[in-house]
């Protein structure tokens, strides 16, 4: 099977390409930057329909992981990449005669300010917070409603692992600077996912999409299935990195109000990342964990690396950093 992976410079995209290669598939990647992966590389932007068409040509499946993530930037930029770019991928896959698309989405398309306690992949909504979640919600619904080609959306939840510059990197940096803070003492219970389990799930989806009829049109949450408190996760990351765990506490209401003020200030600094927003306040302050039974059954997949095993591997990576 020949698979195109978009956005292979991301941790998820790269790990997925490596897992597909391990399974014996032919892989090519589409990304804006260079890569040391020994696969055919198409340099381009998913906003460029012609570049996407060239990269997809001859592929059986597309795993679409490229996206604008984070909390910084104009809504128009998020829309152009996450919505219009995804439209280009879908149209190119149809034109190339591919049998399916695996879309990398996010659980944040399905909730905003109220807790999620053991739900099974709730539908994507309009009233979600932040440009990223809003545009990913629009794109996911368009992907799953497209009748021209089989498609499935996977929603990896709080992905982390060695080399992660997002969740792990930010927590460690703030701990080192003694700026670590928790909302409501970190009592919210959340899912998280070790990176190898995500790449396994995406590869399994690529092998099944367009072949397994009950997969098309579905949105499936991917996690370790081991919900833990935010405080426990942050403390485990700090311990793995051998940095001090001494967080300050802020209540959810105060965090949301402060986040809105900071957002307003940072609108004047569009290229700087605000330390707190209303979105991140709710992400840290409310519980959100999901039942992944359906995901496991449909993909014939299960997490092979537990959270504790993952934290041990993370500690090894900090103890023996690559040159």
UniProtKB/TrEMBL annotation:
GO molecular function terms attached to this record: oxidoreductase activity, acting on the CH-OH group of donors, NAD or NADP as acceptor
SUPFAM superfamilies listed in its UniProt record: NAD(P)-binding Rossmann-fold domains (SSF51735)
Keywords: Oxidoreductase
Gene3D superfamilies recorded: NAD(P)-binding Rossmann-like Domain
InterPro entries per UniProt: 3Beta_OHSteriod_DH/Estase, Lipid_A_modif_metabolic_enz, NAD(P)-bd_dom_sf
Residues covered by the 3-beta hydroxysteroid dehydrogenase/isomerase domain: 4-238
GO BP: steroid biosynthetic process
Family: Belongs to the 3-beta-HSD family.
Protein name as catalogued: Unannotated protein
Origin species: freshwater metagenome
């Amino acid at each position: 099977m020949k698979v195109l992976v978009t956005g292979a410079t991301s941790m998820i995209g790269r790990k997925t390409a490596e897992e597909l290669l391990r399974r014996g598939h032919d892989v090519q990647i589409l990304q804006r930057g260079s890569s040391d992966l020994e696969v055919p590389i198409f340099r381009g932007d998913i906003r460029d329909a012609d570049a996407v068409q060239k990269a997809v040509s001859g592929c059986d499946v597309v795993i679409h992981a490229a996206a604008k993530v984070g909390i910084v930037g104009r809504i128009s930029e998020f829309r152009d990449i996450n919505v219009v770019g995804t439209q280009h991928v879908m149209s190119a896959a149809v034109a190339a005669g591919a049998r399916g698309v695996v879309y990398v989405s996010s659980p944040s398309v399905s909730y905003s300010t109220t807790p999620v306690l053991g739900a099974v992949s709730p539908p994507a909504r309009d009233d979600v917070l932040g440009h990223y979640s809003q545009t990913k919600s629009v794109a996911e619904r368009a992907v799953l409603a497209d009748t021209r080609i089989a498609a499935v959306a996977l929603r990896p939840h709080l992905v982390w692992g060695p080399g992660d510059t997002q969740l792990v990197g930010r927590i460690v940096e703030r701990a080192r600077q003694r700026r670590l803070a928790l909302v409501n003492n970190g009592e919210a219970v959340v899912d998280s996912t070790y990176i190898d389990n995500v790449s396994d799930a995406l590869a399994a989806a690529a092998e099944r999409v367009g072949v397994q009829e009950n997969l098309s049109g579905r949105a499936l949450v991917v996690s370790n299935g081991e919900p833990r408190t935010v405080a426990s996760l942050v403390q485990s990351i700090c311990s793995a990195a051998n940095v001090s765990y001494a967080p300050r506490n802020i209540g959810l209401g105060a965090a949301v109000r402060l986040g809105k003020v900071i957002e307003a200030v940072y609108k004047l600094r569009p290229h700087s990342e605000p330390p707190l927003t209303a979105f991140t306040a709710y992400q840290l302050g409310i519980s959100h964990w999901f039942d992944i039974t359906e995901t496991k059954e449909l993909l014939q997949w299960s997490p092979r690396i537990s959270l504790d095993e993952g934290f041990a591997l993370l500690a090894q990576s900090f103890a023996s950093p690559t040159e």
